[in-house]
Amino acid sequence: EPEVTQTPSHQVTQMGQEVILRCVPISNHLYFYWYRQILGQKVEFLVSFYNNEISEKSEIFDDQFSVERPDGSNFTLKIRSTKLEDSAMYFCASRFGRPSTDTQYFGPGTRLTVL
Amino acid sequence: KQEVTQIPAALSVPEGENLVLNCSFTDSAIYNLQWFRQDPGKGLTSLLLIQSSQREQTSGRLNASLDKSSGRSTLYIAASQPGDSATYLCAPLETSGSRLTFGEGTQLTVNP
Fold it and tell me: Residue A47 in contact with residue A28, Cβ under 8 Å?
């Protein structure tokens, strides 16, 4: 069964460094998302991406964050200058089409630790 | 802003029991609602999607209901098993079509 994959599974970085989290969505899906979950807290929406542009972003997704679909298969989240509070599990998700009927499928997550 | 509440926060039951997990949300303008399962330190596994026009959706031992006008959904698990132990999350999809808003979840433990 097709699935969303994410790499790396765990990333440790120093405060102020740039990180890129990578995702391979399900191959025929058209809509892509990033969410995050700080330890012990709710899963929070960051951004949605469709047709090579951001369709919606949350208040969390500030200028330090960016997303890109550099080729036909990868979807990346870049954090330009990491802060301690960016430490979280980051989930990528994808959806085939219609929002009313189609499921968002989530990847296994990347645990980001900022020291 | 959508707010999602799940009750109870935690539940411990003996194997074989039928159980009900509750979810309430404040904004009834939703496209659908998804129920997920999350195992410790793992990703989210989609269990059921119930469209805003539907009242119920079933998958195996799971049954989800939705009352959009009152902002409520329930997940019914029949004949619970130890393998059902996980955190269960509900997430309505806003009418922007993008944003799932998650509750804190119900942490379920099924004891053999």
Answer: no
Over residues B55-105, the pLDDT tens digits come to 999 999 999 999 999 999 999 999 999 999 999 999 999 887 789 999 999
Q: What is the mean pLDDT of chain A?
A: 94
d(CA B73, CA B21): 9
Interchain pair A101, B101: CB under 8 A: no
Name every chain A residue with its beta carbon within 8 A of the beta carbon of B97.
Answer: 99
Chain B residues lying within 8 Å of A108, measured CB to CB: 42-43
pLDDT band with cut points at 50, 70 and 90 for residue A81: very high
Residue B97 near chain A (CB below 8 Å): yes
Gap between the Cα atoms of B58 and B61, Å rounded: 8
Across the range B2-14, mean pLDDT stands at 96
pLDDT averaged over every residue in chain B: 95
> Which residues of chain A make contact with B89, given a CB cutoff of 8 A?
43
Of A113, A105, A94, nearest in space to A39 by CA: A113
% helix / strand / coil in chain B, to the nearest 5? Answer: 5, 60, 40
- Contact with chain B for residue A65, Cβ under 8 A: no
A90, pLDDT greater than 90: yes
Contact B32 A45 (CB under 8 A): no
CB of A113 less than 8 A from some CB of B = no
